[in-house]
Design a protein that fits this description.
Elements: H1 3-13, E1 18-25, H2 31-49, E2 54-62, H3 74-84, E3 90-93, H4 96-99, H5 103-116, E4 119-122, E5 127-129, H6 134-168, E6 181-184, E7 189-192, H7 194-209, H8 214-223, H9 230-237, E8 245-248, E9 251-254, E10 263-266, E11 273-276, H10 285-297, E12 301-303, E13 309-311, E14 324-325, E15 334-337, E16 345-348, E17 359-363, H11 364-429, H12 435-464, H13 469-487, H14 494-500, E18 501-505, E19 512-516, E20 521-524, E21 539-540
Parallel strand pairs: 1-2, 1-3, 3-4, 14-18
Antiparallel strand pairs: 4-5, 6-7, 8-11, 9-10, 12-13, 15-16, 16-17, 17-21, 18-19, 19-20
Helix pairs in contact: 7-10, 8-9, 11-12, 11-13
Length: 549
């Protein structure tokens, strides 16, 4: 008698002890599938209840684990150890597909079952499988092949779903994993988290306006009770989601040769799908662009004073790095020294022989003097604007105060007219008046009512234009304080350069054109007759002024 027939007889007659392992598995971890896994165990327990000769050795459940790989299923492996030890006679499971979906793994299990005289009972078809029977083995192979096809169909279905999502440009939960956003599972929508959004803006402002680094920003956030590592901050600064640009189809899963677990790999950027969501923008586009330019500047190659050249992140050593360019060919100027002792810092351009612009280099001290002049001009202009603005605001405050006096007078007029109106109404209510007198009183009442309405509208207009004197005074004080701080600066540091200067160009005539963040272009004439006290510091045709030899 075969093993399968022997077990059937024991189950039918309830004779002899049958040692059983219950196995249940689902391939995903969503709630519905977990419930399905529990159902598998429940069905098995009902079968056990009907057969008192069954002894349960163990119940093994793998939640959310694929059947294609045995190595990632801890409970399945525990069951195999019990089978190998000869402690199991029968496995109860929903279907053969619960045990394996890979043909190689299935053959390995089949051989183990034959060696240990163990078989399988499947609940969905109420069958004890005879692995010793040739025809049955063929059927098992067909079952595994069908299961493999199922896996393939599921994979194709997933790809189709992804294609539809890309076509519709739909965002999912994984697209809002960035700090500052919240995924709403019930509505399947993404919204901005106001509190986290404030932190994101603070990070960008610290990075751009105050020359912050990921490390210094990490310390700043830690002081505020916010945990975020420097690497996360660096990635955050480069994340286009904060300007409303979400990319989908960035990654896919791939199982490499000889691997047992698939890996997520990044697709080429040309395959990404852009989903524009201006409603989810947290950071101003200009601020974001400035952050990207600073980031690129900080990863430039620079020469250290110890003569070791390295690729490193810019730490504020060279003030004008990434800011000086040739206006003809667009090439940048790089930091260096004009002497072997490295006491005379310069910015020079290399590989410039094919460019008609003869300007090759400029000294750092002269750049600082030029920058000082440019910023002084800007500050003077800002001061003039402030003075004009202060005068205008003062006039507005005075006008607002005058409006207040006029509003008081208008309200008094309304009060007087209301008294007149009440007197007329009292007069009208008295008896003995002829119809002509009543008509005259009614006409006068209508006239006064219209006058009151007109006065009320005038008051509304004047109150809407009324300014808060304290608010205006505070704003004027803020502007004056900011200009005073700028006017009193003594050194040109990297922070000021990043905050005020967009680009510096060195044209062939020896002058310096400086494009400020405000959009203003300032030209500093570097001839001996100009206001530039240091004289002509720009080097042409590779020849330098005697001061630097």
């Amino acid at each position: 008698m075969s093993l399968a027939n022997d077990l059937r007889e024991k189950l039918n007659t309830d004779t002899g002890t049958i040692r059983v392992a219950i196995y249940a598995r689902v391939s995903t971890d969503n709630d519905g599938q977990k419930e399905s896994c529990a159902n598998q165990v429940e069905l098995a327990m009902k079968f056990v209840t009907n057969h008192p000769n069954i002894q349960i050795i163990g119940t093994y459940v793998d939640d959310g684990i694929s059947g294609k790989n045995d190595f990632t299923r801890p409970k399945y492996n525990e069951m195999l150890q019990q089978i190998s030890a000869g402690n199991i006679d029968l496995i109860i499971t929903k279907a053969l597909s619960r045990l394996n979906r890979d043909e190689f793994n299935s053959l390995y299990l089949k051989n183990m079952l034959l060696q240990t005289e163990t078989t399988v009972y499947t609940l969905e078809d109420n069958q004890i499988h005879d692995f010793e029977d040739l025809n049955s083995g063929i059927m098992h192979s067909l079952t595994f092949a069908i299961d493999a096809q199922y896996v393939m169909r599921q994979s194709l279905s997933g790809k189709k779903t992804q294609e539809l999502r890309c076509e519709r440009k739909e965002l999912s939960a994984k697209d809002c994993q960035s700090y500052g956003y919240t995924w709403h599972k019930d509505t399947k929508t993404i919204t901005v988290n106001p509190e986290e959004a404030d932190v994101v803006r603070k990070i960008f402002e610290e990075y751009v306006y105050r020359n912050g680094t990921p490390a210094s920003i990490e310390r700043m956030l830690k002081a505020d009770g916010i945990k975020m590592c420097s690497r996360s901050i660096s990635n955050l600064i480069q994340d286009e989601r904060y300007i409303g640009n979400f990319y989908i189809n960035k990654r896919t899963s791939k199982l490499g040769t000889g691997q047992t677990k698939s890996k997520r790999i990044q697709l080429p950027k040309e395959q990404w799908v852009l989903v524009e969501r201006p409603d989810l923008q947290i950071v101003d586009t200009d601020l974001f662009d400035m952050a990207q330019r600073i980031h690129q500047t900080r990863i430039t190659v620079y020469e250290k004073p110890d003569k070791k050249t390295t690729q490193a992140r810019f730490q504020g050593i060279h003030k004008y790095a990434g800011k000086i360019f040739c206006p003809v060919c667009g090439k940048p100027y790089h930091f260096g020294y004009s002497d072997r002792a490295k006491t005379k810092p310069i910015y020079e351009i290399k590989g410039h022989s094919d460019c008609p612009n003869p300007v090759r280099r400029i000294t750092e001290p002269d750049l600082e003097e030029i920058t000082r002049q440019a910023l002084k001009r800007t500050i003077d202009q800002q001061n003039e604007v402030c003075q004009t603005l202060e005068a205008v605001l003062t006039e507005c405050v005075q006008a607002s105060q005058n409006n207040g006096n006029e509003i008081a007078k208008l309200k008094q007029q309304i009060k007087t007219k209301n008294n007149q109106l009440n007197n007329l109404i009292d007069e009208l209510s008295e008896g003995g008046l002829i119809e002509a007198a009543k008509d005259r009183i009614k006409a006068k009442i209508n006239t006064i009512t219209e006058e009151i309405d007109n006065l009320t509208e005038i008051i509304k207009d004047k109150e809407s234009n009324k300014l808060s004197v304290s608010y205006v005074s505070d704003k004027i004080a803020e502007i004056k304080s900011a200009i005073a701080e700028l006017r009193n600066f003594t050194e040109i540091d990297r922070d000021r350069i990043l905050n005020y200067i967009e680009r510096i160009e060195l044209p062939a005539n020896g002058d310096v054109n400086m494009l400020l963040k405000s959009g203003q272009v300032i030209t500093i004439v570097t001839t001996e007759n100009s206001d530039f006290s240091e004289g002509d510091s720009v080097v042409k045709n590779g020849k330098q002024d005697d001061r630097y030899s």
